[in-house]
Amino acid sequence: AISRDFAYGIPKAELHLHLEGTLEPDLKLKLAKKNGIDIGQESVEEVEASYQFDSLSSFLAVYYPAMNVLQDEDDFYALGSAYFARAKENGVVRAECFFDPQAHTSRGVELEAVIRGYYRAVEEARENGLSADLILCFLRDMSADSALETLRAALPYKDMFVGVGLDSDERDNPPQKFAEAFDLARENGLRVTMHCDIDQVGSIDNIRTALTELGAERLDHGTNIIEDPELVKLVVEKGIGLTSCPMSNSFVTEEMKGEEIVELLGRGVKVSINSDDPAYFGGYIADNFLTLAEKESLTKEQVAQLARNSIEISWAEDSERSAML
Ligand code: ADE
Ligand code: ZN
To answer: A single Gene Ontology molecular function, please (predicted)?
Structure first.
């Protein structure tokens, strides 16, 4: 296995990270107090005790209501700023962070407050030597019209985010539902990725559609391509990156999917390791590396390859990316 210092120190990109999923219990309580919101818990221990989930849907049912404590631009800035500080400690040199505007606009928060707050944190991270960008995600359990409307409203700020993604509950919400929004994103020069979650019904078909019809450049999760040799071949040929999240997988599927990750790595798929929602799943990115390395007895070379993959499949500028490798 590898040492803790190696896991933390190796330069890496984090490409599958939901900023809302970095809301730690102490900040949650602090913002609840600041904004006069009763979240039903009064201490870190009570908040942690409420984190009981064993599936994507039971996780999302805890995750979305908690976001109510985020009310103004400064709150989004505080959340982003806290994550980037953690990322630096974890050896992250490049962070591409998802955010869910609809989870905030749907409860009356202005889109501008969300984007400007997060973007202030991005600028601060850059000043501190961490290359960072934002990825706007559509909530797939909301309507296609809502996604389109959200993207249109965000386009005036398009210099503040690098791409679009797709998250929330995949069941009955295939990616082609959002074809129009993805088209509009690409027309505006935005990059495209999407969650193709593990163990969801129809996920293999969704992956194929994402790659062949919707212009997905990466797959978030997506390790179940292993069920289909043709898909593995396609992903290798196209150089499509996979963003895996071992500790998140353990919660959502009761399995880390470590064997799949190692197998795909061996077959030349550009798979990377990420933390997804670290405040909820028990560890930031270096802990995800450590946990996986221990479970699968990874060599230093395998860990280095996973870290290198993350930088290679990142959307940093070419010159910046070369300098990180
Ligand atoms: N939102 C935050 N984390 C997610 C995940 N793992 N899958 C889908 N939507 C999410
Ligand atoms: Zn995710």
So the answer is: hydrolase activity
